[in-house]
Design a protein that fits this description.
With 177 residues, the chain is an alpha+beta fold. Helices cover 36% and strands 16% of the residues. The protein has one domain: HIT family, subunit A (2-Layer Sandwich). The protein has a five-stranded antiparallel β-sheet, with helices on both faces.
Amino acid sequence: MGQRPGWWTRCEQRGFRPRVNISAEFRIFETEHWSVNQRMDCALPGYLIVSTKQSTTELAALSHDALAEFGSLLSRVQAAVQKTVAAQRVYIGRYGHSPGYPLHFHVIPICDWVEALFWQDERYRLLTTFADGTDTTQTDGAELTLFVWREFCERTTPPPISGISVAEAIQRLRATL
């Protein structure tokens, strides 16, 4: 067997084994076709994963019913995350291709304090050198997503959280959804 990917090692360091069956402490909500959970290896409250229950990695392979349920579910999840953790923005996207996981979408809350941490970290100013434009006072979703992944998901010691904890967010999201 080859080397395990870094996310696998980080999960194990925090006492979790990557798997499709999410530990009950992270599960938040489910429908007939979808499950919603806090991302297990992430210290950012409200960072959710919305996964299909169907064994596929392709959106086009989902059943008609699963697709019909998808839009309204994402809308509910976005609104719940925004309210629960006071996010100014909520990014929703499909990334990666980790083996062993079904098709899933990341729901990433960007709170004022997360963006403030981004601007305080000088390492991320390097990102401005990749832009051709003159507007370097704004950031975008790609930069903030990278920041969240590197700082809250991959570091063994993430930045301090401002606001509610992951456990509190899970409880409130369960009650809301």
